[in-house]
Structure formats: C-alpha cells, structure tokens
Amino acid sequence: VRSSAASDVYKRQVSTQSTGSNKAQIQMDSAKNNQERAEGKTEEWSGWAKDKIGGLIGNEQMQAEGKGEQLKGEAKQEHAKFKERVIGTTEQIGGAIKKDVGKLIGNEQMEAEGKATELKGQAREHVNK
Could you read off the pLDDT of 42-92 as tens digits, one per residue? Predict the structure, then answer.
C-alpha cells in the first residue's frame, strides 16, 4: 500500500510539473502571437493609409507599396491566428485525453481539469477563425 501511495504522489508531482511548464510555454507562445497580430494590424493600417495618400497625390508607386504593406500585415495576422488555432487543437486533444484518463481511473478532479482544458482549446480555436 505504501509504495502505491508513494507512486501516486510521484505521478501527481510529475504531472503537475509537466503541465505547469507546458502552460507557461503556451502562455508565452500566445503572447508572441498576440504581438504578431498587433504588428500585422499596424502594418495593414499603415499600408492602407499609404495607399490612400498615394491615390490622392497621384503617386502610383506609393499606392502599390501601400497595398503591399497592407497584404503583408493581413498575412501576419492570419499566420498568428493559425498558430493560435494549433495551440487550441493541442489543448483540446490534451484535455480530452486527460479527461478520459481521469474517467477511466475514477479521478474526478483529473476528469474535470481535462474537460476544462478541452473547452479552453475549443474556445481558442473559435476565437481565431
């Protein structure tokens, strides 16, 4: 009985440490993606303004550069949203696995945590469509 209890404590510690470091990495990646989206939006708006000013003063080169910047900004935003969807899918799959393992071994807390992570992943995917 003793070794089983010690084994359970060890498994919980390893699981918590692994989950904690994964959560920190996801938070850092998500912050980088948010920054990339903001940069992309700024570049898109800047390009839009450059395009419009070029049109007003009759400068076709300025217009073309503006349209290019606008497209580059939109692409940056889409790239960041794609990476967030990947994180969401990963959370969703990991949460579903944790939920099912918790259910299988009769650990309600693990099951609930897994369900919460699964829902968080679904929400992240939905927000970044």
Answer: 999 999 999 999 999 999 999 999 999 999 999 999 999 999 999 999 999
State the amino acid at position 84 in one-letter form: E
Q: Using CA atoms, how far apart are residues 83 and 87, in angstroms rounded to an integer?
A: 6
**Of 96, 76, 99, the residue nearest 88 (C-alpha):** 96
Contacts of 7 (CB under 8 A, 6+ apart): none
Between helix 108-127 and helix 60-105 the angle, nearest 10°, is: 160
User: What is this structure's pTM?
Assistant: 0.71
Q: Which residue has the tokens 């259910």?
A: 103
Stretch (H or E) spanning 7: helix 2-57
